[in-house]
Write a sequence for this structure.
């Protein structure tokens, strides 16, 4: 079973994300990066399926040079190889542009399953996978909290508003996983050493047959007009509990006419 | 002529979802509002849509929309959009809404703006406000495409306003191509929730990892009951299995906007704030004076939840008795 995992590499969680006023994008250059923890869950699921059914796990990332650290981490966790779309021409792509890039890269491989995180930890858009599935003509099975594969059939438990649905499709398919699906493994020393020898294929947009009318800022359907700070909420009163904290809340509720 | 604005209507547990009605009300305010309703529907659904501004409802109660996810709805919508060219196609940021909107945006090559908190429509061009990074930033975006603009809008962004109107109904034919039957729902499991519903609750008492274990949520249930509210939780707590997923508040959980939100042992991660920040009054109890939640609180109590909350419960009982 050959599995593709789309993994974003994002500014590390310790970094306070800033937005560049001029480009109106997240500042990505020059800040430490890490494999998106949400994508790590998708990768973990892929690795487990590979361990059970054989085959390969290929990680696909569209990102700047700093993303290499996250890709190495994915390889150290056990991915077989990686594709990195590394090209200034794709900077500023919107979700659809990103999905087009990922689709073109994935078409270069033969695969049975594409795994994504339901949403990334930096943008939470949760849009790219659904677009990607459509572009690749794959059935989308989204918000999986459990995955089972039997022959050509894939079954997932799909998170929903009031419980979950059991959903099935034929492979090849695209599945997005929720972050609670598993606890991703940490890379071991052996994995880290092995990762150094694994292949990372680099692609440009042009090599994938995509021009500026499709990708990058020029190809983006969605244009960011501005970024700003919303009106700050005034922090209220802060008190330290000296044995009467509960009473103080009750007084406050009475004052606000809530009780 | 007024702009034509479509809303993708959703039904959950036999009811048109509140967000559908919020979107319709907004659509009716800005232009000619119409709804698309696909799948077996409750009897009063069309009337409910009309009562919130829909002048027309495109509908099909074919079971294919219930039994096969996303693709049948996307094909049907794409054909309808090509024919009628609405200026705007609005979806709720829900599970189904997101799936359908994403696929549609790719199929029609139109792009999509997600997580929209507010928007304007002028001369066919849309300007959307998106609270970003858990609300610490606010972006404005537009869709630079000719044709229908697709937006995914957050729950509770607008008020659902009942009005009395009648809607015409147009039956739509479901796609006959068997290839749309790809994502098959074989079972639906409803996880019964206890207590009042989180969405729509006037008071939410939410717990985080600071509560230490599942049993201690009893304390919050008691407090919620005294205040006539519902219990919520952070994802950390849900992931730990202390309470069911349906109680999760935040970016990947529910968006709530109660009159009163009491956050107990919650740090205030951006992803959590995204789901509760617009609550009218926020009270936080946390033993760490540096916890980010305090920056969003009207009243913050730096203290131990196991002391403060029981005292509050006693105090409420006492005052109620008095
Ligand atoms: C893609 C993604 C999506 C996410 N979506 C969501 C979401 O929808 N909702 C959500 O909530 N989270 C979400 N998260 C997780 C989020 O980042 C945080 O990890 C989570 O909200 C933290 O939960 P918490 O506040 O319970 O735990 P912690 O951050 O561990 O905070 C516990 C707090 O309890 C306090 N405390 C401990 N003991 C006591 C005591 N005895 N008395 C008083 N205070 C005490 C501590 O000081 C601390 O501030 C998401 C994360 C990712 C990556
Ligand atoms: N630049 C990218 N490179 C690889 N995968 C991506 C990229 N952007 C989005 N994805 C995939 O789509 C998921 C959701 O991302 P998003 O739509 O940004 O929330 C991610 O977890 C990845 O699986």
């Amino acid at each position: 079973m050959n599995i593709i995992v789309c993994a974003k590499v994002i500014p590390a969680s310790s970094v306070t994300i800033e937005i560049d006023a001029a480009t109106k994008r997240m500042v990505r250059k020059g800040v430490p990066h890490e494999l998106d923890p949400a994508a790590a869950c998708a990768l973990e699921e892929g690795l487990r399926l590979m361990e059970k059914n054989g085959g390969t796990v290929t990680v696909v990332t569209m990102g700047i040079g700093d993303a290499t650290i996250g890709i190495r981490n994915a390889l150290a966790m056990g991915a077989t190889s990686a594709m990195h779309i590394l090209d200034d021409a794709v900077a500023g792509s919107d979700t659809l542009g990103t999905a087009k890039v990922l689709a073109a890269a994935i078409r270069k491989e033969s695969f049975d399953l594409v795994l994504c995180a339901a949403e990334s930890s930096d943008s939470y858009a949760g849009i790219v996978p659904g677009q990607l599935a459509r572009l690749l003509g794959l059935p989308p099975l989204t918000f999986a909290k459990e995955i089972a594969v039997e022959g050509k059939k894939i079954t997932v438990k799909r998170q929903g508003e009031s419980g979950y649905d059991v959903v099935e499709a034929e492979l090849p398919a695209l599945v997005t996983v929720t972050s609670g699906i598993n606890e991703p493994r940490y890379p071991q020393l052996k994995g880290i050493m092995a990762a150094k020898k694994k292949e990372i294929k680099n692609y440009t947009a042009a090599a994938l047959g995509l021009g500026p009318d499709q990708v990058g800022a020029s190809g983006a359907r969605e244009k960011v007009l501005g970024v700003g700070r919303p009106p700050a909420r005034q922090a209220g009163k802060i008190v330290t509990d000296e044995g009467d904290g509960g009473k103080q809340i009750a007084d406050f509720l009475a004052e606000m006419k809530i009780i | 002529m007024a702009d034509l604005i479509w809303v993708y209507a959703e039904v959950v547990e036999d009811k048109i979802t509140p967000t559908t009605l919020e979107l319709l009300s907004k659509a009716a305010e800005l232009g000619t509002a119409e709804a698309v309703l696909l799948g077996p529907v409750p009897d009063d659904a069309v009337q409910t849509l009309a009562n919130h501004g829909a002048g027309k409802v495109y509908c099909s109660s074919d079971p294919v929309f219930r039994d096969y996810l996303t693709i049948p709805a996307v094909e049907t919508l794409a054909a309808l959009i090509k024919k009628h060219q609405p200026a705007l196609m609005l979806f709720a940021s829900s599970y189904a809404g997101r799936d359908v909107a994403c696929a549609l945006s790719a199929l029609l090559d139109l792009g999509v703006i997600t997580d929209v908190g507010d928007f304007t429509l002028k001369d066919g061009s849309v300007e959307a406000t998106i609270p970003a990074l858990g609300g610490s930033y606010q972006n404005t975006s537009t869709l630079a495409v000719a044709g229908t603009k697709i937006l995914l809008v957050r729950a509770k962004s607008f008020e659902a306003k009942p009005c009395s109107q009648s809607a015409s109904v147009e039956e739509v034919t479901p796609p006959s191509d068997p290839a749309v039957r790809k994502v098959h729902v074989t079972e639906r499991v409803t996880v019964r929730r206890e207590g009042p519903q989180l969405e729509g609750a006037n008071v939410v008492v939410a717990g985080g990892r600071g509560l230490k274990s599942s049993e201690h949520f009893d304390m919050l249930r008691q407090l919620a009951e005294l205040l006539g509210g519902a219990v919520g939780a952070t994802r950390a707590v849900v992931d730990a299995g202390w309470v069911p997923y349906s109680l999760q508040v935040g970016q990947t959980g529910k968006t709530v906007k109660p009159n009163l939100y009491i956050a107990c042992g919650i740090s205030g991660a951006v992803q959590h704030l995204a789901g509760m920040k617009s609550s009218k009054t926020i009270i936080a109890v946390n033993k760490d004076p540096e916890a980010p939640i305090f920056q969003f609180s009207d009243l913050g109590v730096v203290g131990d939840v196991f002391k403060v909350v029981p005292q509050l419960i006693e105090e409420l009982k006492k005052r109620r008795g008095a």
In short: The CA atoms of residues 75 and 206 of chain A lie 26 Å apart. Chain A touches chain B through 75 residues (CB under 8 Å).
